[in-house]
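Q: Structure tokens for this one, please.
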Amino acid sequence: CLNRNRGLPLILALLPIKAWSLMSLSQIQARACIRGFTLKLNDLFVVFSAGAGGWSPLTSDRYQWLQVDLGERTKITAVATQGRYGSSDWLTTYLLMFSDTGHNWKQYRQEDSIGSFPGNSNADNVVQYKLQQPAVARFLRLIPLDWNPSGRIGLRLETYGCPYSSDVVSFDGASSLVFRLSPEPRRVSKQIVSLKFKTLRNSGTLLHAEGKDGLSLNLQLERGKLLLLRQGTYNKKLASLGSLLDDQHWHHIVLEQRNGQLNLTVDKHTETVHIPEEFHLWLNVGAIPNPAASKKSFHGCLENLLHNNINLIELAKRGDHQATVQGKVTFSCAEPVSVAVTFPGPHSFLQLPWTTPSTSGGVSVGFQFRTWNKAGLLLTFDLPRQGGVAWLYLSEARLTMQIHKGGRALLELSAGLALNDGQWHSVDLTSRRGHLTLSVDGQEGGVAHASPSFPVSISSQVFFGGCPAEDDSQECENPFNIFQGCMRLLALDNQPVDMIMVQQRLVGNYSQLQMDMCGIIDRCSPSHCEHGGQCSQSWTNFHCNCSNSGYSGATCHSSVHEQSCEAYKHNGNTSGYFYIDVDGSGPIKPQLVFCNMTDVNTWMEIQHNNTELTKVRSSPGVNQHLVHFDYMSEEEQLLSIVDQSEHCQQELSYHCRKSQGSPFSWWLGGPGSGRAQTYWGGAHPDSQQCSCGLQGDCVDPQHYCNCDADRLEWYGQLTQKHLPVRSLVLGDVQRPGSEAAYRVGPLRCHGDRNFWNAAFFNKETSYLHFPTFHGELSADISFFFKTTTSFGVFLENLGIKDFIRIELSSPTQVVFSFDVGNGPLEVRVDSSVLLNDNRWHRVRAERNVKEASLRVDELPVATQEAPADGHIHLQLNSQLFIGGTASRQRGFRGCIRSLQLNGVTLDLEERAKITPGVRPGCPGHCSSYGSLCQNQGRCVEKPNSFHCDCSSSAYTGVFCQTEVSASFKSGTSIVYVFKEPYELSRNRSDLPSSIYSDTIIGGENVSLSFRTTQSPALLLFIRSHYRGYLALLINQHDELELRYELDSSIEAEVLRSSVRGLANGHLHTVTVRKRMDSVSVQVKPLQ
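A: Here is the predicted structure, written as tokens:
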């Protein structure tokens, strides 16, 4: 379109206006104006009169509409509205509908969800809206939603666009077009096929292409979805896109093939598949060559069918030799008229009168419906003479009929299954000569029969979808859920219902219906459920089932697993198998690894298919042995682990005898299948050496590996980034007397560079900036912080109107705020403890199309639901600010660590190195994690992380949680020597004499557990440098006995426990406490 892409005025071009160009629902005289021309609407038709003003129906309600006929299909790019001239009448919000025929209207939606358009705030200003996606239609209908509360509906309207040209072809379900676009099959690097289609049938073949060896590629509709199928020796579904494509509206398809890759686009959604086969340029349109498959032929219209910009419909029109017409093909699009009605809300109903007694002597009601809901009333009527009521409704997606009288069920029938699948289903209810039949989808569905003892007939009215409001005088009762969905092809007593007359209120009555359209939306296509979450839906909402996916949240976006063994350790876990998700909410799947936390470093171990010492078995005529290692983790998982770890290593040992290494042997490691590496454990890359060559202690100084000297073995740890080891190539294994064996251990990595990546902000005006954050539909943000200040912005990113921000608003509150076009929203978490206590606190925020959530530490999650049918895209364009804002106000002072956005860790430390007011790193972790050290273990700070020093504890392990035990045989013992203050002062004569008295301990505690069957037995003996001693033993009576002498001038004392039988082989615990001159002993069995 010209005119700055907006297009030309379309309504103005209709002037002098034709009588059929404008229509209004109002049948009472109303005025309408188009750019100064005043029109008068009488009985739906337009005539001229003088003056100015605008359209303003006599009744202002949501049943009014203004319709424009543009005369031909036109590309509409913009709409402009203005209030009625010189009045208080204007629209504040409205809906737009488009149609090719004046029937079967389609609502225009922004972002696939927003139906309403912003209108005017006064009668004078023009508000123009440029359509995000141009609409192609002949008819436009505007429906008022809200208007000035102090006035009425008032409107002056203009639309903009440009002419639209097209070539169409129609197929009747038994016809097709065949194109041979090249005389011989040939290789082409790129092919593009594009078309539009419309149909009322939910199945049928659109395109069929032939390939080699009987292979073919099919593009076909199946249950309203578009499937791309590869057929041949085996059939495979390559892609599935779209939904509800049988709505008799135009849908756009593009297939773009580049070498072995094919991009399939349906409307605005694209999926990429790989098709390595070449397909001949034979193209069947509308059917497949096999006549037996005529049921899969297409019934509907195609438009603008192009192959590499060649108009194929034009070829067929002019009878080109490359095109063959098969069957009845017409080059126009016949539009079947099918008036549907939508029941969108809780107060929707349709009431139709039942005429005089049936000419067939019974009851016959038929209709089609489609819905996502499992339950809802479809129709109800009263029985005339029995005083009963009949209900036809959905229950658990089955069709059920009940007839009640006096509060009890006289009859119940059920038919059909899974009727909430969004497909059209036909229902027929007939009662004739004492026989009642309920059928769904004819022979393909289900049928239920009954022979009631009473006649089933209709009193006077039939209600579809629901009942009038309670205060209405109509007799209608609905004890079931309301129906939300669409109906069409209604028939009473075998006579079709004229829904246009119903719309004009000439027949029956209705409330809150959308006439001449089906407003069903598939909220699961495309699915907003991520990571394999299963999408289910109702009429107004969708739900994601995240079971067994490893992810959580309303859209299965956030991982439930930590990103490394290091993170599990700091949650207080000990060694074991854990699922780790290296990129959080990113595309890499969680993986099961072993986390070894017995060392100061936390090791992550990834196994492969052979970690045992394996002897090389020679094969005749083969002087080389190839070994490939398959890891339990996928490629992306392995590379991410190696990349984010501080250190990785892998044992590689080669036991050899007369089997030389380089240049006969090498290994492959790194990404993909790996690159050949000629260095070995402990040596430098590309050195062709082993560790002994680097250290100069090989058995033969002329060789850099012991195996090269036909001697012994070499062994070493590989620690470079060429890990993991993918393959081994072992040569020189066929010489007489040669022997070889190898072992490749598991990949072992420790450290998490992302987990400890931190920055310290020491000024309120300082910040770090990064590129714009892109989280249009799903955004998760997580980080740790610690501070002593009361407020500060952690993160902010702005757009033209949209924004996202996380801040500490007070010492006990964190706020997550954002705006995606629906107005600012906030999610708040309040803490009962101070958050500015200089300890690490974790923040996790998520925003998706359904809700926003915020969690701080382990406090309950706070959530905020997204507005129904509102804007869903978060559109940002500024830099991402960390620790501050663009205005340099309310900046954060403190530490931020492990900041991740949608699974990607921002390198705060690297950016902090070049940013004033920000320092890389943030020491001081024991204040937060020191409590993990148990049993008097001491927390020791490390630059990144901490560890527990268990040397002063009788426990070991990563958190000093494992008891230290030993088994003694007769005559064995362990001796510990401790330095006492006296010895220290004796060795340091320059120390003041007061050090002795200052370091005297007022008491001691001794505790131990034992299990034995021997008595007597000495358990513990302690002697001091002052000739005092303490002995703990089991005497000959199996009693515990404590002997001690605290002062050499006093005789030894003996304490005996009252507990006997301690040498019974069970575990007992003993605690000895000394306080000044008193001693106590306690014995109890250990459970």
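A few notes: Residues 797 and 880 are 5 Å apart (CA to CA). The first helix runs from residue 312 to 317.
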